[in-house]
Amino acid sequence: MPETVIVTLYGSFAKTYKGHGTDLAIVSGILDFDTADERIPNVMNIAQEMGVRISFVQSDENAEHPNTARLVLRDKQGALEVVGISIGGGSVEIREVNQPDPKLSGSKPAMLILHEDKHGAVADVTSLLAERRINIGYMEVSRWGKGQSAIMAIEVDDSVDDELIRHMYGLPHIKEVWQVNRYQHKITEEAKACSAL
Hints:
By secondary structure, the chain is an alpha+beta fold. Helices cover about 25% and strands about 35% of the residues. Strands 2-1-3-4-5 form a five-stranded mixed sheet, sandwiched between helices. A four-stranded antiparallel sheet has the order 7-8-6-9, covered by helices on one side.
């Protein structure tokens, strides 16, 4: 579970997020609530009780899509940045995932793999990489809680192609697989807001 989350909203999201319940939906997703969960109207208080500090920033910057949200999630182990857009009907499309974590060298291909915290999930992924003779240079696994969602950060020596990604999606307990884009840290509104927490 993240300790702090900065949610930056662009375009129409920035103007209407409270009236349309976008803030409740985003925080419910962070806490891994089902869409029919009866606790959603009270999710802000629940997050606070769980020790998750969440801030919303309304940006005037132009985004590629009018319904864009950028989330920066942090805990003691590091940070994760996710950019997503609303494509209607309650569906979201993830456009970008960044892990500004100095433990990854940035010079090698890397992936983030969201999965269920189930026995064998990590072994299945590493076995698949071994079968393809792809060596792991660095790997870290963290989870939101026992039996909940977990994430693998893996840096490998060789490039990962689309076919391998498709095979990973076919493994048990795998939810999402993303290529990691490294980036240079810049002083942004998100960073300023985090430093104030």
